[in-house]
Amino acid sequence: xxxxxxxxxxxxxxxxxxxxxxxxxxxxxxxxxxxxxxxxxxxxxxxxxxxxxxxxxxxxxxxxxxxxxxxxxxxxxxxxxxxxxxxxxxxxxxxxxxxxxxxxxxxxxxxxxxxxxxxxxxxxxxxxxxxxxxxxxxxxxxxxxxxxxxxxxxxxxxxxxxxxxxxxxxxxxxxxxxxxxxxxxxxxxxxxxxxxxxxxxxxxxxxxxxxxxxxxxxxxxxxxxxxxxxxxxxxxxxxxxxxxxxxxxxxxxxxxxxxxxxxxxxxxxxxxxxxxxxxxxxxxxxxxxxxxxxxxxxxxxxxxxxxxxxxxxxxxxxxxxxxxxxxxxxxxxxxxxxxxxxxxxxxxxxxxxxxxxxxxxxxxxxxxxxxxxxxxxxxxxxxxxxxxxxxxxxxxxxxxxxxxxxxxxxxxxxxxxxxxxxxxxxxxxxxxxxxxxxxxxxxxxxxxxxxxxxxxxxxxxxxxxxxxxxxxxxxxxxxxxxxxxxxxxxxxxxxxxxxxx
Length: 501
Fold this sequence. Notes:
Low-confidence stretches: none
Shape: globular
Largest sheet: 5 strands, antiparallel
Distance between the termini: 52 Å
């Protein structure tokens, strides 16, 4: 095929379309969509339909852009009230947990040196590099799978896992670059290395908070006449946070996640449209990123590393990840053993390790870089297949499934300036025992039922409107606590509360 703008767009459109289709099909069978996106990329690559792509720098650039968007969007969707109680264990898992996973897995890989295929031999430093590349859980995979499953987890497990996956990339990133530098130079000043590590984390966190508040101030005060330009402005701010933090010698990935956390938990004009834009944009770049990484790998090379990769994957799932989690969470007694086992299990590998595996590819001093990349790719596939498909089943088996969150029926949001709470309730026969008219419901003052959904019909009720079991009501009130008590007195157990942050 002749390379031209038209052909590139045609192939890109077909790949995106196929990715969406296989993602929908995979959801029916419990297969992670991200794994299927990888499969589409591999199928379209040089060993499949013949699209030749071998540019590690380009894949790394696409991955960096995608991670900025994914991490920022993940931060925006995370409630600070939810992660505050698990801040300490989440940060410990993101730092000490990553370091322990690297060391334990690295020594295991080094012990397998005699079993590596062909002439490949990994020294201790190369083994540690391979382990560091795979040491972090993948934010894209964790965010995508946990939210697409729609399950409610006990013991604050979901915010813990999302906080860990959103904030542990910097540690793995710095360990990867440090080990590459040691291999290239042959020596390292450990004092300077530790100082650089601390500096990256501190500057990254500080820049994330400062620039996050600056973004909120700019968005709320710039007063752009065209509302459609606000997502463009916010996107520019996201890339600025990453690049500017790197210029300050901080970690841009950490800064982007924290900036998203700040923005998502503050009052923001056009917040709903911004959130919707980033949700769609995040999925687009997840697909593009996984397609690109799928194109970069040569499937014909994977069988040669299948044996050792499978051993490493199983070791990480069964030994190094659980050991690092249990040790990291020793000071935090609130987590039960079942919760610790589940956190160990949801140590998903995904796009981030594959992106980090492109860094050795660009170094001439690491002769086994291609083998390292292939091992990381194979381990990622095993992780998504084994762990990604059993997220719900494992939670159910461990008895960690909480009360399911009610799905919102009314796609309505109030501006942040309005100090009111919206809720949706589902009526039952017991609820209507005192009368089946709206006026018979004992709701607090300053509370209004603005919409009723019955089957597929929506209508605005009046006081004498007759209600039926199964009706869904949209309620607005200025006192959410009093409204909750009113629901309890009416025997209403199925409801959702949405309060402006």
